[in-house]
Design brief:
The complex is a heterodimer of chains A (about 300) and B (about 475). Chain A has ten helices and 14 strands. Chain A has a six-stranded mixed β-sheet, with helices on both faces. In chain A, a hairpin with a 2-residue loop joins strand 9 and strand 10. Chain A is elongated and about 80 Å long. Chain A has two domains: about 220 residues, 3-Layer(aba) Sandwich (Rossmann fold); about 80 residues, Alpha-Beta Plaits (2-Layer Sandwich). Chain A is about 35% helix and about 30% strand. The longest helix of chain A is centred in the middle third of the chain and has 16 residues. Chain B folds into two domains: about 260 residues; about 190 residues, Immunoglobulins (Immunoglobulin-like, Sandwich). Chain B contains eleven helices and 14 strands. In chain B, strand 8 and strand 9 form a beta hairpin. The chains are: A alpha/beta (about 300), B alpha+beta (about 475). At the A-B interface, helix 2 and helix 3 of A face helix 1 and helix 4 of B.
Chain lengths: ~300, ~475
């Protein structure tokens, strides 16, 4: 479990906070998506949690241990998978994993077996004798996951990990994160591929200019934002448009008509379909829904950048 | 501990470390080779030495010359010019250094002149007269020559030339020695207060080399040797006094070696230590490789210290190997090893310089964010305040900025202050202390300039601790 309390990071005295009084809790057995535009403070937050950089104020508590005051104990339960993994380029995977394992007090045949198992699990066993600088970006990412797992941490930080992966890689990664969740691990997934967050996250925290502006629960995803009506009419004419405009603002998207800012409640939206049918319009699609995550996200953070 | 060992192994087996070790060893071999060449036995000096003797029998003087170089090696095919009663000869020595001449005369007194150069003028300077007389003593003729010990620069031994007056009759003499003080009353050289060493027996001419090297000789002591025709003789047939391996010579060799190493390695340490710190820490920090380590259960301070230890350790080992290789050359050339205090002083000097430059790069890496910036500092630090420090920068500061006159005490004083302020100056301070000689070759009392063992230790400890301590304190709390 990771608790983030009033976390603030200011890089320079004249600069605005990269992260400002952030409060979050990521629970065991949960995947928390972390969404924000570029520069919103996602990576800074993850680097603060992982202990790479120090907070200006506030606390990160990992399984009850403060990442600053009790770095060694807190770090035992952190597995960090960066967007662009940087490892010692001339190292080979096995010695480097042994090196990492040493920090967890792991040694002997047990760690040899574990390393072999991890490298096989992430399909880099065959490349174990190659230097890491010879690895492709995808291989480096897989190696970084293996490296994150070496100490069997309770909490995982994925920083834009899905970037640059091919579709199979994305699917494997998604499956892997879901498995971690099922194993009771706490997963913090930063990404701007919102569809992926929608697919796996239990909650999605949206950050803008270093500040948390919204946490979306999974059960809210289907009814985000204001209700809209999407209608497809085969024998469309001005009369149909007149009917729709009585109920709200009409936008077109190809043959699809979207009625926004409804003048009636969402529960009464079926009235629109009834009236169209009464006037002999052939309605092939009628859907009452909220905005999708992307629309909702852009509605929240769009326009001002970050 | 595993992480520390990994850092150590990684640093030791890193390309840069291996290249550094090769460079350091090659330099040691180069210095050693030059040193050995300078003390090679093949150099016998510009002119040969000559011993001679003769016998008389039935109206013929049989004259023997023996030519040898300063190492006692026979000088073969050496022309010897002789003149007797206005007749000139030129004869070459045999490969064993001997030349035999016969002079037919029944006179009881003949004068034979000989020279190593042609008799070409009346003012010929190196003509040596040799008196030939029928009335020779029945005692063995002996001449003790002090020669250089082959393979050494300053060690001495003796080569005794002896011959009988009658080739058909064997004669003997006795070689004794004693250790004497260079100054003060040495007492008479008689067998009763000397130590017997060898008996010389021959029928004809004998040449023998003796390496008399008593143990535990003091710096102000020498060996006196004497040959007596009898063990109860009251005076010596021939005697000599020399320093077989005098303490002064030993110190001289050690000092020359120390000076050369301190200065030459002192020049390359800044660049090697700085680059090593860059490759194994600064670069990793700038390109975020260290981040994958920092997220482990380890503190930044621990990472700094373990990498620093590996860095400094690998460099020290490289330089210790270099010095050890030079020791082999030194021993082969002179028979000496650098004494432990000198060896220890060298390693300490390198340790200070390596630790200081490594620590300074670790410190700079805490503030600089790019590899280029760190590399820039590495080059500036190692070139301006390293390689060029004692050659250009320091003299320029002293003469152009401070307007000091070279050779003066105040110049030396400021030299010491500035050398103490820059790690590249530390070897010069140690050389100054050990040699008690200033930059202009004048003998000085280092203590009068504040350079003592204690002050050197304090300056060294400061340079070892301060940069890495600052890097550690800042690094463990800095992003």
């Amino acid at each position: 479990m990771i608790e983030i309390r009033d976390l603030t990071k200011i890089y320079g005295r004249t600069q605005k906070p990269a992260v400002n009084k952030l409060n979050l809790e990521i629970n065991d057995g949960e995947i928390l998506g972390f969404a924000g535009l570029n520069g919103a403070g996602k990576s800074t937050t993850i680097r603060l949690i992982s202990g790479i950089i120090f907070p200006s104020s506030g606390h990160v508590v990992v399984n009850g241990k403060d990442i600053v005051k009790n770095k060694i104990e807190a770090s035992k339960n952190i597995g960090w998978v960066p967007e662009l993994p940087n490892f010692e380029p001339n190292s080979k995977p096995i010695p480097l994993l042994k090196y990492y394992a040493g920090f967890y007090g792991l040694r002997g045949p047990e760690i040899e077996d574990k390393i072999e198992s991890l490298l096989k699990q992430f399909n880099i066993w065959e490349a174990r004798n190659r230097k890491l600088k010879e690895y492709s970006q995808g291989m480096k990412k897989r190696f970084s996951i293996a490296a994150a797992l070496i100490g069997d941490p309770q909490n995982f930080l994925f920083d834009e990990t899905l970037n640059g992966l091919d579709p199979e890689g994305v699917r494997n990664m998604r499956d892997f994160m879901v498995k971690l969740k099922k194993d009771g691990k706490c997963v913090f997934l930063s990404s701007h591929i919102l569809s992926e967050l929608e697919n796996v996250a239990d909650r999605i925290a949206i950050i803008k200019k270093g500040e948390l502006i919204k946490i979306v629960e999974r059960n809210e995803l289907s009814s985000l934002g204001s209700t809209v009506v999407k209608v497809r009419i085969e024998n469309m004419d001005k009369g149909a448009m007149d009917i729709l405009e009585k109920y709200g603002k009409v936008e077109t998207n190809g043959n699809l008509l979207i009625v926004k800012d409804l003048t009636i409640s969402s529960t009464e939206a079926r009235k629109i379909n009834n009236e169209l049918a009464k006037n002999d319009y052939d309605v092939s699609q009628f859907e009452v829904s909220g905005e999708n995550l992307e629309e909702y996200f852009l509605g929240l953070v769009g326009g001002g950048g970050q | 501990m595993r992480d520390f060992l990994y850092d150590l192994r990684r640093t030791f087996t890193g390309k840069f470390t291996i290249i550094s070790i090769i460079i350091v060893i090659l330099i040691a071999v180069g210095i050693g080779f030059l040193f050995t060449s300078a003390t090679s036995t093949s150099s016998a000096g510009p002119s040969a030495l000559i011993d001679n003797s003769y016998t008389y029998s039935n109206g013929t003087y049989n004259v023997t010359f023996y030519a040898f170089n300063q190492y006692g090696t026979p000088a073969g095919t050496l022309p010897i010019y002789t003149e007797h009663n206005g007749t000139f000869w030129t004869n070459n020595t045999q490969p064993n250094g001997f030349l035999n001449l016969k002079i037919n005369s029944d006179s009881s007194f003949e004068l034979l002149n000989y020279s190593l150069s042609p008799f070409n003028s009346t003012n010929h300077l190196d003509v040596q007269p040799m008196v030939l007389s029928q009335k020779q003593s029945n005692e063995l003729y002996v001449n003790i020559n002090i020669i250089k010990k082959p393979g050494t620069t300053n060690s001495r031994e003796i080569m005794v030339y002896y011959s009988t007056s009658n080739v058909s009759q064997a004669q003997s003499a006795y070689l004794y020695y004693k250790v004497v003080n260079v100054t003060g009353n040495q007492g008479p050289l008689v067998p009763s207060n000397m130590t017997y060493y060898a008996t010389l027996t021959t029928k004809g001419v004998g040449v023998q080399v003796f390496d008399i090297n008593p143990a535990n000789m003091g710096a102000a002591q020498q060996v006196a040797v004497a040959v007596f025709y009898a063990k109860n003789a009251t005076f010596a047939s021939s005697e000599a006094q020399y320093s077989p391996t005098s303490a002064l010579t030993k110190i001289g060799i050690a000092l020359v070696s120390f000076d050369a190493f301190a200065e030459i390695y002192g020049l390359i340490i800044p660049i090697l230590a700085s680059l090593s710190a860059y490759f194994y820490f600064g670069k990793d920090r700038a390109n975020a490789v260290l981040e994958s380590v920092i997220t482990r259960p380890v503190t930044k301070g621990r990472i700094i210290l373990s990498r620093y230890t590996a860095n400094v350790g690998s460099m020290i080992v490289a330089f210790a190997i270099g010095v050890a290789i030079f020791e082999i050359f030194l021993n082969r050339a002179t028979g000496y090893y650098m004494s432990l205090p000198y060896f220890g002083s060298l390693i300490w000097t390198y340790f200070v310089e390596i630790a200081a430059f490594t620590g300074l790069i670790y410190l700079a890496s805490q503030f600089l964010k790019t590899q280029g910036a760190i590399l820039g500092v590495v080059l500036a630090l190692s070139i301006v305040f390293g390689i060029l420090w004692s050659i250009i920068v320091l003299p320029l500061i002293l003469t152009e900025a401070l307007h000091l006159i070279s050779g003066t005490n105040i110049y030396t004083h400021y030299t010491i202050i500035l050398n103490a302020l820059i790690p590249a100056g530390y070897p010069s301070l140690v050389v100054f202390y050990i040699g008690q000689i200033n930059a202009f070759g004048s003998t000085v009392n280092a203590a009068s300039f504040g350079i003592t063992q204690v002050s050197l230790a304090v300056i060294g400890v400061i340079w070892i601790i301060l940069p890495i301590l600052a890097a550690f304190v800042i690094g463990r709390r800095r992003d």
